[in-house]
Amino acid sequence: VKKIAVLTSGGDSQGMNAAVRAVVRSGLYHGLEVFAVQRGYSGLINDDIREMDLRSVGDIIQRGGTILQTARCKEFVTPEGQQLAADNLRKRGIDGLVVIGGDGSYQGANKLSKLGIKTMGLPGTIDNDIPFTDFTIGFDTAVSIVVDAINKIRDTMSSHERSSIVEVMGRHCGDIALYAGLASGAETILVPEVPYDLDEIANRMTENFSQGKRHSIIIVAEGVGKGENISAEIMKRNGIEPRVTVLGHIQRGGTPTHNDRILASSLGDFAVRRLIEGDSGKGCGIVKGELVATDIDKVVNTKKQFNMELYELSKRLSQ
Ligand code: F6P
């Protein structure tokens, strides 16, 4: 490849900017011409593409959000939209594309790859729901934000001897809840991957308080249900009303952690090097510290394995 482009798509995540910077700077370092597409796939369709230089990605490694902006684009779902996107790249002679995003973005990258554009996907989502990578870009920062919030909630819960429900993001994947729950010592972690028993949770809460516990924290992934509804169900069972905090989009903003910046930098550079070597149609990731590239087809058709070991550990430690 001689000319490549980069775009961010789907829900943003902290570290996307660091990944854009890495793709642009690594591409330029290797003598490529590098372009950026604004607003994800809709920018491809609308031909919103500009050439980048070293300075166009200055001062962004520390910023949340994405300077390229992002969108969920309906038109791109159609074969006509995909063809138009591929044509817009081709007319500029761009033959390589790095897509930074989550599951839906990978599906788009897969389509473009089948239309002959050499495409690499980078896992940019706070959800950590992409298989064939241990971590996605943004996940570490999101977990840190949730842990920080739970620390604060715990202070006031202890003073008042209260129970709290913290609702976090994750529609299909409970990783934010799992990692933040384990790291913050939550008593109960509710995730879409594991069934739960409200009677057992309500009884344990009553027992814990009667044995001198001063607070009780339940972390709920949004895919399980609304924190408010779970609170009402617990109240019905044991008379204790857990106070609900919905963290929402706070989890998706702010400066990325050093882990996310390093992951984004390594993966961005890796994707460019793979494109130069002629690789295409791959999702990039990190598995046990190694950078890996897996067929996007396989990535989009595989469900990420839930880490039951960590889940069991959190149960053992949160008595
Ligand atoms: O996929 C990332 C994510 O933040 C999910 O955790 C969440 O369910 C969803 O996006 C929220 O999307 P939106 O910001 O479009 O409401």
Automatic annotation (TrEMBL):
One of its GO terms (biological process) is canonical glycolysis. Substrate binds at T125, I126, D127, R162, M169, G170, R171, E222, R243, H249, I250, Q251, R252. ADP binds at R21, A22, V23, V24, R25, R154, G185, A186, E187, K213, R214, H215. It comes from Paenibacillus tyrfis. HAMAP family: Phosphofructokinase_I_B1 (MF_00339). One of its GO terms (cellular component) is 6-phosphofructokinase complex. GO terms for molecular function: 6-phosphofructokinase activity; AMP binding; ATP binding; fructose-6-phosphate binding; identical protein binding; metal ion binding; monosaccharide binding. Its cofactor is Mg(2+). Signal peptide: none annotated. The keyword Magnesium applies. PANTHER family: ATP-DEPENDENT 6-PHOSPHOFRUCTOKINASE (PTHR13697:SF4), PHOSPHOFRUCTOKINASE (PTHR13697). Homotetramer. It is found in: Cytoplasm. The lineage of its organism: Bacteria, Bacillati, Bacillota, Bacilli, Bacillales. This is ATP-dependent 6-phosphofructokinase.
